[in-house]
Design goal:
With 145 residues, the chain is an alpha+beta fold. Strands 1-2-3-4-5-6-7-8 form an 8-stranded antiparallel barrel. The N and C termini lie far apart (35 Å). It has 3 helices and 8 strands; from the N terminus they run ααβββββββαβ.
């Protein structure tokens, strides 16, 4: 079920790609388009699947968007011991978000619309075929002033 929701998002993000190297004007325009999304987004990581090894309760997460790059972490404070990003990825000019785990094979895809960021984990096909319990989450966050 989750895969049916994520595949269209993945297809939308895949259509956007980096601008060709020979087109400096277009590359600058693309970089300018994503600056409107920059900032901090505060939200929750909400479990959508439940297993013995899965987190059962939502937890606070922060997303930081800067220069077309996005990171998800559990704290906004740089001096915090948990500041290291959990997911990191890119942002397309239309607000499409593609994230990949920094220390895992997890990936998530979503969208920023206005001040709201929404995303969902995309389970690995191999894990689904093997019948493994996959801990999946959705992410909801709002831009902070």
């Amino acid at each position: 079920m989750l895969a049916l929701l994520v595949v269209p998002l993945l297809a939308g993000c895949a259509q956007e790609g980096p601008a060709p190297a020979g087109e400096g004007g277009q590359a600058a325009a693309v970089a300018g388009d994503v600056t409107r999304f920059e900032g901090w987004y505060r939200g929750q990581q909400v479990p959508v699947s439940f297993g013995a090894n899965c987190r059962a309760l939502p937890r606070e997460v922060w997303f930081h968007v800067e220069r077309g790059l996005i990171q998800m972490q559990t704290s906004r404070h740089r001096r915090s011991s948990v500041w290291n990003p959990i997911l990191a990825g890119t942002l397309s000019p239309d607000g499409g978000v593609a994230l990949r785990g920094t220390k895992s094979n997890r990936s998530a895809f979503g969208q920023i619309e206005g001040d709201r960021l929404t995303a969902a984990d995309a389970p690995e096909a191999a894990d689904l075929q093997d019948g493994k319990t996959v801990c999946a989450y959705r992410y909801e966050a709002m831009r902070q002033p």
